[in-house]
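Researcher: Next entry in the queue.
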Amino acid sequence: MLTIAFINGSPKAKESASGCLLKELKGFLQDSEITEFRLRTAEGRDLAEILKNDVLVFSFPLYVDGIPSHLLRCLTQLEELSKESKPTAKVYAICNSGFYEGHQNRHALQMIENWCAKSELNWGQGIGIGGGGMILSIQSVPSGKGPKKKISSALATMAGNILSTRSESNLYTAPGFPRFLYKLSAEMGWRQAVKANGHKTGDLSTRR
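Model: Structure for this entry, 208 residues:
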């Protein structure tokens, strides 16, 4: 049976978009042996176990057009371990961002692909998902329905490639939700956060 490592690279302790996307993907991989890992720090106790799997699936948020620093440190450690143990794992990655457009994640996915080359691992495929700010709010929507339709389709495609350990071109998508409404919702959220912290919206543009 194919062994798969789900690696949640979100810095959040719980309720992360990265975790939601892995949960959605898991629904398309029901007959596989999946072990889940959380890499919120650079601690290496689980890293050797990760490399024992046939497939590695990273899920993480975009940070300044790249990989979060804590996950980058873990990747550096995994690179050294990989050179020692010579695993043959296939690597897939899901990167989500607050930008509406999924292709904003392309540089981060290229970083994972380049890491695979340095670590002598096999690159499989990446998915760049935009609209990350609303992924938690639509997690209860049935898979493949409404605003999750395009995301579910991309994850189902990746699942098929994982099960056959194929390498394919990266996919880019976003929730099935109008861009202007997504932007409006995000701006309302910022205003509410500002007020909750005892400030006014005009304070956002104040220079000190």
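Model: The first strand starts at residue 3 and ends at 8.
Researcher: Noted, moving on.
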